[in-house]
Amino acid sequence: MDSETILKFLTLLVGFYMAWNIGANDVANAMGTSVGSRALTLRRAIIVAAVFEFSGAFFVGSHVSETIQKGIISPHLFEHDPMIFVMGMAGALLATGFWLQTASYFGLPVSTTHAIVGAVLGFGAIIAGFHAVQWAEVGQIVASWVISPLFSGILSFILFSLIQKKILFTIHPLQAAKRLAPILVFFAFGIFSLSILFDGLSNLHLDLSFHKALWFAMGVGLIAGIIAFFLVRRIPEETYEPLGSFRPQQVISLEKALKHLERVKIATSDEAHKKVSNILKEVRALNIKAKKETHFGEGTHVYTRVEKIFVFLQIISACLVAFAHGANDVANAIGPVAAVIDVLHNKTISHQSVIPSWLLAMGGIGIVVGLATWGWRVIETIGRKITELTPTRGFSAEFGAATTILICSKLGLPISTTHALVGSVLGVGLARGLQALNLKILRDIVLSWVITIPICAVLSIIIFKILQLIF
C-alpha cells in the first residue's frame, strides 16, 4: 500500500472522527435546550437529531463545505507540493478532533467552527506564510461570529417578549396561546420548508427557484397552521379555582406594577421619593401574599397547559435546529476531507471540486453516532446550567438560533451553532431579567471560545510536523 492510499484512508478515518466529535459536542448544544426544558427526553432528542442532522448534512451541507474548503487558505500556494496541503488538512482535522474530544469529556461546549478555522489557519500560515491566508474570507467568518449571536439573541428576545406580552402576561393565557399557536406553527413550518426547498436539494437535482420555494413553503406552513388550529381548539377552556383572594393573572399585574413603581422611585426625590417607597413596600408585601395564596412559584394548571402547547412547538423548533446544524457544521468535517481526496485523485490542487454525496452521508452518520455515544455530557451543561428553561423559553431560543443558522448557511458563512444558541439563550434570559442567567457558566463558555483557536492552531502545526516525518 503506497503512502497516498494510506493518507487517503487516514484522512477519511480522521474526517469521521471529526464528525463524531462534532456530534458529541455541537449537536449536544443544539439539543440541550429541548432536553433542559423537558420537551424531549434524552433518548427522543437523539432520535430527532439522528433524522434531521443527517438530512441537513446530506441535502444542504455542500453549500458550506465549499467555503471551508477553499475560503480560508489559498490552495494554489501549495501547487509546488500538493502533499504538503494534504498533510496540513489531515493535521487540521485531527487537531480539531482532539480538542473537541477533550472539551466534550469535561462537558465544555466549544465552537467546532472556531476549532477547524484555527487549525487550518495554523498550518497554512506556518507553511506558506501569512499571505497564504485569504483574510477577506476570514474577515467575513469573524464577522459572522459576532453577527450570529447578536442576530439570534435579538430574534429570541423579540419572540419571547412577544410570548410574554401576548400569552403569559395576559388575563387569559390559555386562550391567548390557542390563538397564537397556529401562527407560530405556520412560521416554523414555513421557514423549515423554505430552508429545504430553496436551492437545498442540489444533491438530488431537484432545485427550485426562490419564488417557487417560497410559495410552496407558505403552503406547507398554512396547512400545518390549519391543523394546529383545529388541534388546539380541542383543548378545554381554562377554569379558575383561586385558593384565596387572588388569581395568577393578578400576580402578574402586581409584578408589572412593581416594575413601574421602581422606575418612579428612581426618578423622584425628597418627599415624593419617600411616598413612592412606602407604596412600593406595600405592593411588594401584597405581591408576596398573592404568590403564596396562588402557589404561583409552583406553576398553576393554566400555565402548565400553556407550556404543554409549547412542548409541541419546541419539538418542531428542535427539528429545525438539528436540520440547520447538520447543514452548517458537516462542513467542518467534510470540507478538508473533500479537499484532500480531490488532491490525491487529480495529483494537483484544483480550484473547483465537487463534494460527493457519499462524503456528506459519511459526515452525517459520524455526527449522529457522536451524539448517541457522548452527547449527553454537553447536553447536561447546556440544558441545565446556563439558565432555567421551559418550553416557551426553549422554543424562543431554538427558533431564533435555527433561523440565524439557516440564513447564514445559505449565504455560505460557516457560523458557530454554539454562538447562535448561546446568543439565543442570552436573549431569552435578558427578556426575563439579567438575574435569570448563570453568568459564571456564560463566562466559561466565552473563555472556551477564546482559547479554542490558538490551541487548535498549535495542535495542527505539531501534528503536521509529525505527519511530515512519517510520510
Oligomeric state of the chains?
single chain
Number of domains: 2
Spatial separation of the terminal alpha carbons: 13 Å
The main pleated sheet reads as: none
Rounded mean pLDDT score: 79
Strand content: under 5%
Number of helices: 16
Helix content bin: over 70%
Radius of gyration: 25 Å
User: What overall geometry do the principal axes of the alpha carbons give?
Assistant: elongated
Total number of strands? 0
What can you see in these coordinates?
The protein is an all-alpha fold and 471 residues long. The chain has two domains: 3-235 and 300-470, no CATH class; 248-294. The protein contains 16 helices and no strands. The protein has helices spanning 3-36, 42-59, 62-70, 82-105, 112-128, 135-168, 173-197, 210-233, 248-267, 270-294, 301-346, 357-374, 376-384, 391-410, 417-432, 439-470. α2 (42-59) crosses α11, α5 (112-128) runs parallel beside α16 (439-470) and α14 packs antiparallel against α15 (417-432). The longest helix is centred in the C-terminal third of the chain and has 46 residues, at 301-346. The mean pLDDT is 79.
